[in-house]
């Protein structure tokens, strides 16, 4: 029987304990690096997807504003003007001849601070920026007739509000908390004079066929407004004229509304009062911008991304913030538009908010200006 002896210099097959420990450590490091990279990639994908979806809604809302605004109209016509009454209504029991012909319109184009839409206690932190209201053939009717030329009012403004009316009734607030956000609202009453008749204690919703009231756009504002985009922090609207019309003058392109506010019923939007046409010494009438649409309207929206805005809002106690005041960007003089916008961007960067600015100058196709008007 032969005995098989191990030679002293021969090693056994297998790994030593040290080699196993080193291999395990290296494998653990590789797995850790891989999982960390995967988690980072997933987080980046979620953030990118969230930003795309968030800003997509803001972009769609911005395109909605620009598309509808470009169709704004006043349906202007010519009528008599009497100096004694300041309108086309002749004085009672008088043979006074009309002073001349002036533009007339029953419609209205209005740009006003959004805070004016609220009650007496409304503040800029609840209604930031500016609001825009106009009429255009946008075809909203309950009867679905003549939609291509049906005249409708439109309005856009920002309001700080909760999402309670958008939540299902069965969803408890304790499980999914109610969110408060800045929402871009669209005012869109139907064309019928009375869309919902008043029955008993239920108040009817007035239509938009009559604009005689100075603040017609406030009628049923909450009832016929709906949010079209969340997390819209600010909106600035500046009526302007084309650059080529300024040749040989000292005027600036924003001269028709140096303080952003604009009313098509006002002769001079540089003053807060509603001015009537002025009778010149030569007997002609100075109508200014009365019953005229601005040739260009520069619209700027500032939209924030949900995740960064949620963190910022939580740090602020989920309370409204007067962003323009904190950024020292009052947006009260059109000549300082670029300065105020830069200050707003700097403020949002300091607050570590992910945001995007949408801006465009929209030509209004129905703005009937001529050489005398410019």
TrEMBL record:
Q: Return the InterPro entries for the record.
A: N_methyl_site (IPR012902), Pilin-like (IPR045584), Verru/Chthon_C (IPR019839)
Q: Which terms are listed as keywords in the entry? A: Membrane, Transmembrane, Transmembrane helix
Q: Does the keyword Transmembrane apply?
A: yes
> Any stretches that span the bilayer, and where are they?
20-38
Q: Which Pfam families match?
A: N_methyl (PF07963)
State the protein's name. Answer: Uncharacterized protein (TIGR02599 family)
* Organism in which the protein naturally occurs: Prosthecobacter fusiformis
